[in-house]
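Sample entry (280 residues):
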Amino acid sequence: MTPIWFGSAINSFGVRELMNGIGAFGPEPQPQKAAERPVEPEENRVTGFVFKVQANMDPKHRDRVAFVRVASGHFERGMKLLHVRSKKPMAVSNPVLFLAADRELADEAWAGDIIGIPNHGQLRIGDALTEGETLRFTGIPSFAPELLQNVRSTDPMKAKHLEKALMQFAEEGAAKVFKPLIGSGYIVGVVGALQFDVLASRIEIEYGIPVRFEPSQFTSARWLSGPKDKVEAFANINKQHISTDHDGDLVYLTRLQWDIDRVQRDYPDLHLTATKEMMV
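Predicted structure, serialized as tokens:
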């Protein structure tokens, strides 16, 4: 059974009951899956993973905040943690907690808590932070977009700035950005048509770059995997369909379902997937 509360936040009616209910019925921190082993919340050593990145939360400072779910241990402000992807230590000196638009320094956090780590692009979705152990957390999927459009800057002099903006939104997970092997420009993928308007507005407001989105010849995207030699051979033959995402992984862009069926029929060693595990 699922409890349901009725109330009104604007009238402060039922809010206390809702919070008490969350405290009473909310599940305890659960074990987190990693490629190497399950991570139990009762473990003493701190581990955590980035599940969201948000840029320009404070437009005056061009900040980037990585939201980290603490999976185990007792985190304390100022700790040095291993950034597993780069294999470099990272001093977490200014972690923050958020409540709506307010933020405050987080002096400590426990398994199940979420802290924000301001950074300048070092952290991205899927990254793991530990007290020295090499872990790669799983279960953070990236889904293929349902709508694809070409994006162009109306000011040719700002093409490089547009590239930077698109890569930042891709790292946030706000959109998928693909770079075709043939031709110039970028293809942006989203799951809803309204997202194109939101992206155009954010790019103009946050970067001062007016852009326009144009229809693409492609209708879907699939990540390409398989034996390295066969993947490279396939990509060389089908360059007009091949792009790379912001991580550099190969993506097969399709016009029709027939394109996907053809690959599955003629290239049994290759795999086309609509999701990608964000495990880095």
